[in-house]
Amino acid sequence: MKPETRKKIDELFRHYPERRGALLPAIYLVQEEFGYVGPEAARELAEIFEIAPVAVWEVLTFYNMFYTEPQGRHHVYVCTNLPCSLRGARPLIRCLEERLGVHAGETTADGRITLGHEECLGSCGTAPVMRVDGVYHENLDLERALAIVDQLD
Amino acid sequence: MAQITIDGETYEVGDGLTILEALDQLGVLMNEVELPHYCWHPKLSVDGSCRLCQVEIEGVPKLQIACNTPVRDGMVIHTKSERVEQARRGVMELLLLNHPLDCPICDQAGECKLQDYAFDYGVKHARTDLPRRPAKKGFELGPTIVFDQERCILCRRCVRFCREVSQTGELGVFQRGERSLLETFPGAELDNPYSMNVADICPVGALTTKDFRFKVRVWFLDDVPSICNQCGRGCNINASRSNNRVYRFVPRRNDAVNQTWICDHGRMSYKGLTEGRCTEARVGSRRVNYDEAVSTAGDRLRSAIDAKRPIVVVASPFASNEDLFVLQRLIGDLGCEPGTFAIERGDSDALLIRADKCPNAEGARALGFLESDAAVGEAAIALVLGRVAPERLVNVETQVQLVSHEADISVSADVVLPVRSHAEYLGSFTNFERRAQRFSPFLEPCFEAWSFGDALTEIARAAKVLGWEQPFDVIRVSRELAQAVPAFAGLDLESLPAEGAPLR
């Protein structure tokens, strides 16, 4: 962990009545640095927070937005909740799986893209929805989805 | 105090307790009041995750979980109403959704709460034909515990045990929702001195001990209450036996001694009960039958008495209160120096494990024996109970040693008498807090061996010591002990309650 990250975590503690409260933002900071939070980083966090490593791991694995394994340069997540599924999210994700040669949840061999499915993105009115590096792409059809993914470097 | 009514019965309970706590303290939980629960455990924090202990409370619209609902004065609770039973059926259906139907090959079968309540509340047919969730099968969580993940119902008792009791925190529930899985931190092991307790508290067959796994069906076992003899704590245990063989020790609840726990070392000590036993009486290097060894010891004792030569006694903190009382009386009748005993010491911790590695040091003290590992004085004969350091007996001519294990036999022993281990006779130990606790026999040795008290009495009878005409009878001796020694007043083996009692 970079000293800057560590410094930011120490700064976080000032904003919470208990150290433990700062765990979520601290995990974000570590993920920002490494792209994911593996067991080693989780151990380091546990030491800083003076809690058991399992306690960090429980939080890490609970939330979808934390990654415990290295991710691709780009994150492509397709919502497969009910409204999106009714509007064709499942053929969409199968099509992306085919194009990228990976299953949902996996990263392409060249480390370019991690594909995944996601629970509700809160944009049911514009289903199906896909989130690419934090940006929403709505009212998708297969062609547009493929075009968006193809232009990622 | 609060007055609560459960299924028509009224109870007086302490304020601030939850319903389950109150029932547990009254001692009625699971006997008078059958209130099913998985995640709640009397010695762990409340989790409220299994939802099985839901009850109906008059005036409260929704069902409440008894484990996390504080009692209120005048509370009227129903545990058998149709709403409650329906809720239990619902909970059981959800728990059984992903639980494999592998009771025939599961070690927990027969003592499994999930199995029991599945019979009471389970649905006969699943309403889904989707495959059960895949999970890891039979993998080792550490050196002592095997985990069948697909059987886990995520009650988190083991997680809380590791955090709150052993304070090692190895286990956690990772992922969430229907993907939740119990595991250790990646690459870490469940490895602490109390690890095997998680198998006891696991309400299903998910956590089993490597040692007991697949050894025997539990319905072939009967449990005999005993006391662990590995340290001064004297943890209460049940010895599970079948066909004169002991298969496991499990902790027996005693809130004043060991709560509901036992250390792994103590749990595994059952193996030492049968391994390396001294099975044959000896005179010198000659193997003799028991009677001959007793009469030889008696003859030598007689000659020492007749010659008015000194006799010494070395007691053992592994002998029972009754054994030691017999020995103390013999010391009085022979007029020898006060008996001594030595203690082996080892590791200790703040939870259960004590440094004094013997079960009855306090009993020996209470009965007038002195702790010493110094060499005994010059003597014609020494009566030695158990293991002794050879250098303590350099001034002794004839050494009569009563031992349970081969390794304890002193090189200089002249007469060796095999004695029973505490697994093989009735008696009591006094733990480090001066609490007398009874242990019952659960094994019968397949060779001739008597208890310390029995063997000592027979030696005294063979030596024709005055007043030693009667054979040893542990119940009679314990009554005499209760009468003769004020500390043991009222604590004879028949009066001693199952949870023991402090010395006076």
The beta-strand count of chain B equals: 24
CATH-assigned fold name of the largest domain in chain A? Glutaredoxin
Query: Proportion of β residues of chain A?
Result: 5-15%
Rg result of chain B:
27 Å
- Give me the CATH architecture of the largest domain in chain A, please: 3-Layer(aba) Sandwich
Shape of chain A: elongated
CATH classification class of one domain in chain B: Alpha Beta
Model description:
The complex is a heterodimer of chains A (153) and B (504). In chain A, a hairpin with a 2-residue loop joins β3 (130-132) and β4. Chain A has 153 residues and is α+β, with helices and mostly antiparallel strands. Chain A has 2 domains: 3-62, Arc Repressor Mutant, subunit A (Orthogonal Bundle); 74-150, Glutaredoxin (3-Layer(aba) Sandwich), CATH 3.40.30. Chain A is built from 7 helices and 4 strands. Among the domains of chain B are: 2-80, Ubiquitin-like (UB roll); 281-502, Rossmann fold, CATH 3.40.50.740. In chain B, 22% of the residues lie in helices and 20% in strands. Chain B has helices spanning 19-26, 82-97, 113-121, 157-165, 197-201, 264-268, 290-306, 321-334, 361-366, 452-462, 474-484, and strands spanning 2-6, 9-13, 54-57, 64-65, 75-78, 139-140, 145-147, 171-174, 181-184, 207-209, 222-227, 236-242, 245-251, 281-283, 286-288, 311-314, 340-341, 370-371, 379-385, 396-403, 415-418, 427-430, 435-439, 501-502. In chain B, β11 and β12 (236-242) form a beta hairpin. Chain B is elongated, with a radius of gyration of 27 Å. The mean pLDDT of chain B is 96.
